[in-house]
């Protein structure tokens, strides 16, 4: 049964379901990564900090020119391909825990991907400017399409939104590959079983947040497709 709100556009129950599922997935996966990360943050590594192990991994992979810098926040760690630096949060930069090493090596994995021209990384980077544009305009185009009752405009909006879905999907292999590079390095560096096990747990929990984001965007795309095909009937 449709529910209507102030502006007069219909919000049906499937939309409410979509919002609820997206929120639930987001909260559940975010909670899981936070708990897993906190748990392994308390387990010491082999005495080395995240940045020290990441440095060793980078040097061993021919990425000596990649810098390691600090960034504020918690789990705000990332690799920036524009300046070819790893940005690690304080706990992971100087902390000597299993979690710090896992996250720092995951980011180093992205730098190695770039150095080796990993195909999904290159594709993802090529999509960045496109998605920066499409994610800003698709909603406006869609609302105008609904307001003016132009099916073509709604289809265009959905095509623009599809780039965001594609971006989320391409992000998955990039993230999983960076994690498997990190675990492989930790395993080969002889840091001990606890470091390998912890890295797997932390990085799997992190991967679930990307899976949830991809699922959410696919659901949103399906909803938009269903909505426009219904409105044509
Ligand atoms: Zn990553």
Automatic annotation (TrEMBL):
Keywords: Membrane, Transmembrane, Transmembrane helix. The keyword Transferase does not apply. It comes from the Bacteria. The chain crosses the membrane at residues 15-33, 137-170, 202-225. This is Zinc metallopeptidase. PANTHER family: MEMBRANE PROTEASE YUGP-RELATED. It comes from Enorma phocaeensis. The keyword Membrane applies.
